[in-house]
Amino acid sequence: MSKPRLLDLFCGAGGAAMGYHRAGFEVVGVDIKPQPHYPFEFHQGDALAWLEQVVMDRQHPEWLLERFDAIHASPPCQHYSVTHAVHADRIYPDLIDPVRQLLVATGIPYVIENVPNAPLVDPVVLCGEMFGLGVIRHRLFEANWPLDQPAHVVHRDGGTTAVGCSKRPGDAYMTIAGHWSGIANGRDAMGIDWMSRDELSQAIPPAYTEWIGTHLMNALKAADPSAPVPEETKP
Fold first, then answer.
1. 118 and 163 in contact (C-beta within 8 Å)?
2. Could you tell me the residue ranges of all domains in the chain?
3. Where are the beta strands (DSSP E) in 25-135?
4. pTM for this one?
């Protein structure tokens, strides 16, 4: 039985993709920049243009080039992040609304991921502590299918290593941002073993999307009883 196919837009080096892969999806990534470390099928291109093509294919099945069962999108987050306040003179794209409009037009299940303060609709908040990771890294996930907020567990006692430092003994968490050092510790903290330092800074832990992907599989199963369903995963 073939796996459900998921289109991974603004894919970066594949943190989200790996989680969906572990949940049972065949993943295809698209990003405007080259992503030599992306672990699955990759296409360099404009994510919005790809999304427009999916909309066209759905409206005109005789033109269908690619069939996707679900879409994940991680539009650039700088417009909503704390770095925007620090670099107020810089102009960052605000793509969430145009991305959402196109996702809705596809008529298939989707997930939008972004940072806290991004204007997502009824998002679920995930945290590294929910999965026993060495980062906090809160991220928001909007879905157009049922996805309930899991319990947000209390963070462990112990400090968080400052930006620009390798993980200190006794710290519960590591900050993976900016010009940090200690890539081996960073990879371990994120649950990612294939990315460079800069790629890790932009990634989300695969554990997040493995959990989301498992619930997405269940949603697809509810819509199509012939679809495969994985076992429930943490949290």
1. no
2. 5-223
3. 26-31, 41-44, 70-73, 110-114, 124-126
4. 0.85
- Which fold is adopted by the domain 5-223? Rossmann fold (3.40.50)
Rounded Cα–Cα distance for residues 152 and 235 (Å)? 10
Locate 53 and state its tokens: 């093509």
**For the chain, counts of helices (H) and of strands (E):** 7, 7
Average pLDDT over residues 178-207: 91
**Interior/surface letters 134-164, b for 16+ CB within 10 angstroms, e for the rest:** bbbbebbbbbbbebeeeeeeeeeeeebbeee
Q: Is 86 helix (H, G, I), strand (E, B) or coil?
A: helix
Query: How many Cα atoms sit within 13 Å of 57 on the Cβ side?
Result: 14
* pLDDT tens per residue across span 204-225: 999 999 999 999 999 999 887 6
**Encoded tokens for 155:** 């963070």
| 126-177-41 Cα angle (round to 5) | 70
